Amino acid sequence: MGKSLVIVESDAKSKTINHFLGKEFVVKASVGHVKNLPKNRLGVDIENHFEPEYITIRGRGKILKELKRLATSSDQVYIATDPDREGEAIAHHLAQEIGPSNNNIRRVLFHEITEKAIQTAIRQPKNIDLDKVEAQKARRVMDRLVGYKVSPFLWTTVFRGLSAGRVQSVALRLVCEREVEIVGFKAQEYWSIEGEFQTKGSEVFKTKLVKFRGEDLIIPDEAEVQKHIQILKTLDYLVSDLRSKEMERQPYPPYTTSTLQQDASRRLGMTTKQVMAVAQQLYEGIDLPEGRVGLITYMRTDSTRLAKSAVQEVREYIASDYGLKYVPPSPRMYKSKKTAQDAHEAIRPTSSKHSPKKVAAYLSPQQQKLYELIWKRFVACQMSSARVEQTTLEIIGGEYLFRVTSSKVKFRGFMQIYEVEKENDERISLPQFIKKSDPVTLIELEPEQHFTKPPPRYTESSLVKELDTRGIGRPSTYSLIISTLLDRKYVEREARSLRATELGMAINRILVSEFDHIFNVDFTAQMETELDQIESGEKERSQVLNDFYQPFSESIENAMGKKEEIRESLQEEKDEKCPKCGKDLIIKWGRNGRFIACTGYPDCRYTRPLEEVTEETGEHCEKCGEPMVIKIGRFGRFLACSNYPDCKFTKPLPVGVGCPEEGCGGQIVERKSRRGKTFFGCSNYPKCRFATWYRPVIRNCPDCGHPYMEERITKAKGRFFQCPKCKANVKSDEETSS
Questions:
Q1: Hey, is 443 helix, strand or coil?
Q2: Given this model, what pLDDT does residue 672 score?
Q3: What per-residue confidence (pLDDT) applies to 733?
Q4: What mean pLDDT is reported for the chain?
Q5: How far is it, in rounded angstroms, from Cα 307 to Cα 603?
Q6: Phi, psi (rounded to 5 degrees) for 141
Q7: In sequence order, which ranges of 158-256 are alpha helices (DSSP H)?
Q8: Residues 22 and 101 occupy one common structural domain
Q9: d(C-alpha 258, C-alpha 268), whole Å
Q10: Burial class, 289, CB count within 10 angstroms (exposed 0-12 / middle 13-18 / buried 19+)
Q11: What is the DSSP letter of 384?
Q12: Most C-beta atoms within 10 A of its C-beta, which of 6, 124, 495, 606?
């Protein structure tokens, strides 16, 4: 019997699978796609049912030649690319190329890279799913049509090199619309009142005023709050209600791609791109003492479905390690959302026995953190509910009602392994010796002023959640969408938030104005549904593309007719004349951002950067002695001579902290990474490579005396300072002695 050829996508996966299949199989990698649309032309025959023109990717010819050679000498060829639309398309292209050498080709699906799963899949080969191939082809053609038609339009109206994507532009629209909401938000004042009471047993507790005359109390200003306080001080109070009830807190479902990205971003501070890269490594295989094994199931999924064997194994594990009271009477089943393709299981460990503690020594820090998150979520989803006792105490005085609620965990259940944030009422203690109708004494009233807050900017986590909830994109696309927005500088990170840049806002205004019916949430979600219908065989690819293209091509034609008008709408008049020809100057867009240019172009080519002076520094130029100022340029803030353009001296912006590396003598300066993210590095770079993402601040650590601390901002703690040496934290409003 001859050998069989197994083709997978990555080298890392091929090594793992080779270990499981043995000498009768040769496992080789295609290294991803082998064919794609051409880079320098549309590559779609619109007149011939939108047929794509696929060509071999540069560098893949050598790989295909080797695969054909191996196929010729093999009895059987198994194509085991990833079990999704993208993987199906790769399998189809490989089959087309290898078919003439060996047409005995079957498709196998590896949902997890374990010995049992691999052996089972090889024994149950399938045919390539041509409907799934058609769906992927439709998506690829649709994205190419949008990219190759809209992007050149942006080049003629803004500047060359910009791009517009079918789904990416909708994500940009969400970010920009949130920015508009924030800018246009007007805060409204309101007040609350807390009452501090004492029982007859001298126990003191706090409550909140919630009702007046049986209605929810809304206090708009200080004058109103003082009126209520004057009355409240004159009243007698008693306990009008004291009730307790036990509630169950259910565990969360196992991870989908979307919820994993959200949770890893929130809990671990990882970007969506990092999450997917690390999850891929865990899926493809890790070297353990027993050999190389995939630790998690396939990580691109929208399903919460679990294999019965995995559920049975984890229930036995929970009973063994935590006790029978932590095992619910029957296995938990979770429903996937209606729009889910449900092609794969949820993301889970391939075996509950590979506990994080057992495999930690074989994982990198990021792998270990992400695996622990996945493992705990999966185990917790099959554990008993937590039981919480909630007690509500109400105090009545005249026409006023005060209320306080406290919660106490009676049985931790799944929270024994998967920590959840404490509810506010879990931090509140109620008097031990108090009962209904007891009189209580008002000790103090504490009025507090509040202002309504604007909606928060999207984080990577909340943007993924929004896209997923609205049915925009698919699990495999979220990371790429966000990366593209950052790479194109349409969006930038500010702390952990995503903020639309000036360029992003300008691009969004054009796209919404000219292509509102294409780049909107409902239409994009509908297109995802139609792609699913192609995959299920309900619709034809050519009809879906034709229905999309007809109105789209009309919009392109109309927009191209208005390009001069659009270009002028992006320009701003500047109350200044050109120093060369005397004509008016304007502010316009270019590859490196906005700049000042002469309206006499092309006869007059005068331009200069648009740099905003933000503040003086007290420093003087090392070349001409004139004052130095802080300016904003292409790469962020920097120090520049105020005598520009006669003196063009510049240098990075120092933060006032010396480099901590021994013997360096440099200063820490503010810089921008290639991705546009601010970081802080030594002015002696490249001789000194000290760098940190956090702004150093001259402030001695109160614990170890370290000469500086780092400014940090988190959702939970707000703004605070952390010592880079001993990790001590100090609140931003506290003074630390020097």
A1: strand
A2: 76
A3: 45
A4: 88
A5: 71
A6: -65, -45
A7: 168-184, 222-232
A8: yes
A9: 15
A10: exposed
A11: P
A12: 6
Given the residues 54, 255, 298, 322, the one annotated as active site: 298
DSSP 8-state secondary structure symbol assigned to residue 700: -
CATH number for the domain spanning 390: value is 2.70.20.10
* Residue type present at position 606: Y
Q: How far apart are CA 94 and CA 141, in angstroms?
A: 19
Report the candidate in 589, 587, 582 with the shortest Cα–Cα distance to residue 603: 582
Report the pLDDT value the prediction gives residue 332, as an integer from 0 to 100.
93
Percent of the chain with pLDDT over 90: 56
Q: Any idea what the CATH number is for the domain that residue 560 is in?
A: 1.10.460.10
- How far apart are alpha carbons 138 and 522 in whole angstroms? 19
pLDDT digits (tens, 9 = 90+) for 20-36: 888 899 999 998 899 99
Q: For residue 443, which amino acid is it?
A: I
pLDDT tens per residue, range 616-626: 666 788 888 88
Residue 642 lies inside a defined structural domain of this protein: no
CA angle, residues 132, 545, 531, in degrees to nearest 5: 35
Token pair for 1: 């019997």
* CA–CA dist 116, 131 (Å, integer): 28
Return the amino acid letter for 679.
Answer: F
Are 92 and 128 in contact, with CB atoms under 8 Å apart? Answer: yes
Q: What is the dihedral of CA 422, 423, 428, 433, to 10 degrees?
A: -100
CA 579/CA 597 separation, integer angstroms: 11
At 539 the pLDDT is 94
Q: Please report the DSSP string for 656-677 in residue order.
A: EEE--STT---EEEEEE-TTS-
With tokens 């789904």, the residue in question is: 167
- With CA atoms as reference, report the closest residue to 276 among 80, 475, 109: 475
Which sign, positive or negative, has the C-alpha torsion 613, 179, 146, 141? positive
Distance of alpha carbon 313 from the chain centroid: 32
Residue 676 lies inside a defined structural domain of this protein: no
How far does Cα 93 stand from its chain's mean position?
32
Clarify whether 458 is annotated catalytic.
no
Query: Per-residue pLDDT tens for 651-703?
Result: 877 777 888 888 887 888 888 776 667 788 888 888 888 888 888 887 777 77
Whether 597 is in a domain gets the answer: yes
Q: What range defines the domain where residue 39 resides?
A: 4-128
Torsion of CA 198, 202, 205, 207, to 10 degrees: -20
Q: Is 635 among the domain residues? A: no
CA distances from 80 to 29, 105, 106, 153 (A): 10, 11, 9, 40
Query: How many structural domains does the chain have?
Result: 5
Task: Give the model confidence (pLDDT) of 301-332 as tens digits.
Answer: 888 989 898 999 999 999 999 999 999 999 99
Residue 278 sits in the same domain as residue 369: yes
Quote the pTM value: 0.77
pLDDT at 342: 59
Q: Any idea what the CATH number is for the domain that residue 342 is in?
A: 1.10.290.10
List, for residues 333-346, the tens digit of each pLDDT value: 988 776 666 567 89
Cβ-in-10-Å burial (0-12, 13-18, 19+) of 328 comes to: middle
Of the candidates 686, 605, 692, the one whose C-alpha atom is nearest the C-alpha of residue 655 is 692
